[in-house]
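>> received
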Amino acid sequence: MSSAHSSFVLPDLHAVTPFKGSFNPHYPEAAAESSEWVNSYRVLSDKKRAFFLQGGSELLCAHAYPYADYERFRTTCDFVNLLFTVDEISDDQNGKDAHNTGLIFYNAMRDPNYDDGTVLCKMTKEFTARLLKHCGPLTYCRFLKHCKDYIEAVAVEAELRERGEVLDLDAYQTLRRENSAVRFCFGLAGYALGIDLPDEVVDHPAFMAMHLSTVDMVCWSNDLYSYNMEQAMGHTGNNIITVLMQHKGLDLQSAADYVGVHFKGLVDTFLRAKKTLPSWGPKIDNEVAQYGMAMENWVIGNLNWSFETQRYFGHARHEIKRTRVVNLYPRRVEDSDDDEN
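>> returned
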């Protein structure tokens, strides 16, 4: 598989993405507050914390939620920082322990009286208190459902990692929507916009097609961009590139090309579904249009962020964006958590 390659060329996802990006003007102040908040707990080791800081989770939020006001934007930063913390903790755990970590996260978000004394619980309760100040009841209910789906999927991912098992394409895509937390993050859009869409709208086939296609755009592009970092660390099982190589018999370059073609198909699916949305009346139609814009913001924002952060491409990120050529890192020793320089 990848051993036959020393480099591969990224498909140009920006070229097939018709969405316009933007950036939240509250980023400098709100991001600093959120970063200070999460770092004050010192949950992660110094190595992981250094990698975490270079990842720029608040920068991702500025691209993904450019429309949010100051308070809501700060809360989205807290959420993504919290998610990265849960993800980094569970990455080193087996299925049972990862599920227990997830349950702390979920229970602290669901029940204001829950307190197991852990730092993760305290962080989650502080985030939830901020969230509930401006979150509609329907949005919050769906948000909790996404949280439960997320923690269950993360536990499945950990079990697969223990067994060294790589899912087939359909099973992987279903799991990836949840364990990536992308659906979970999309669930914050209503909160960030200040709207609370009815379930009948969110569950409509056209709206759901828009939702799933944009979720998959983020998941597939993330896997493409993170593959080099993950193969160097020996963590390739939870990546679409590995799935395509193992189950479709593709080499590394062909797998990357496949991602590009599929991504374009997802864009087409989204645009077709958007045209078939029914009308629910002027007020809801306007809110649905805002929500559609929020989905687009996540896709293009994630693409832009991927070449601004050091998380995926390190110091070579600007050159890789220009040439799209990724030179594979050598495999690292087992205990390496640090950034890919």
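>> The two ends are 24 Å apart (CA to CA).
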